[in-house]
Amino acid sequence: MSTKTKKILTTSIITATVTVSILGLFFNEIRSRGTQLEQQISILTENNSKESTSVRVKRMVQETEQQRLKLTNNFFANESQSISFLSEIEQLARNLGLSLKTEALDKVIDPVSSAETVKIVFAFNGQKSTVLRFAEILEVVPYHSSVDSLALRKQSNGNWEGRATISIVINPL
Fold this sequence. Notes:
four-stranded antiparallel beta sheet; alpha+beta; 4 strands; rod-shaped; 56% helix; 4 helices
């Protein structure tokens, strides 16, 4: 082999080695950037999902504002609201021709759920139809409430008397 051939062979080997090394570096760089691109796409997809969820939640909050306001109005905002409720019930009883006495008004806290309620005990008497009508009204008061007990009985004078215990939830929010 001649010297010139040896130089060409050596130059070719060096050139091939350098070219393969450069191609290897390019391949590693492309693979590294591809991995980074996949991570960025994943993060971008996650952020888009979060943003979409946030927009849906904001829209739902706006769309349900009226319903939430109506729901909030179905609870006593605080204990003091029970006083105005009592005044309304007393006025209603007078309008129906009943005598009404509030026997108890207590705030009760459920030990398990920590829910606060106002427990009210009413004693009322009058004609049978008005006593029954008043009992029906107590069952559907416009608050989140329950009738814990209701007792009706006929008196010796022909009138009827009733005793009702209702619980009204104080706003849980």
